[in-house]
Amino acid sequence: MPPEPEQHPIETRTQKIGTLLVNEGYVHASDIDTALEIQKQEACQAALPLGKLLVKKGLIRANQLQRLLAHTELRNHIGAYTVETGLLDPATLDTIIQHKSADIPLDEALLRQGVITRAHLRGFLERTLDDIRLGKLAVTLNLISESDLASAVRAKKLPRTIGEILCDLHLITPIDLNTVLSKYRKHLKLGRILIRQGAIDETVLATVLSAQKNRAEPIGKILLQEGLITETQLYEAISIQYNLPFKQYDRLIFSANQRDALTDIIGHDFARRFHVLPVSLDKNHLTVAISDPESIKVIRALRTKQIDLRIESTLITKKSFERLFRLIYMNPSPVPRLKPKQLTVDETQTAIADGAIVSIELLSHPDAQAEAVARLHSAYEKLAIARGLRAQPAELKLFSEFIRNHLQKICQIHHCDRVLFRIIAMKSGGAITAVPAGNPFHTVRESCHESLP
Question: Which of 65, 160, 222, 274 has its CA 20 to 30 A from that of 127?
Answer without folding.
Answer: 160
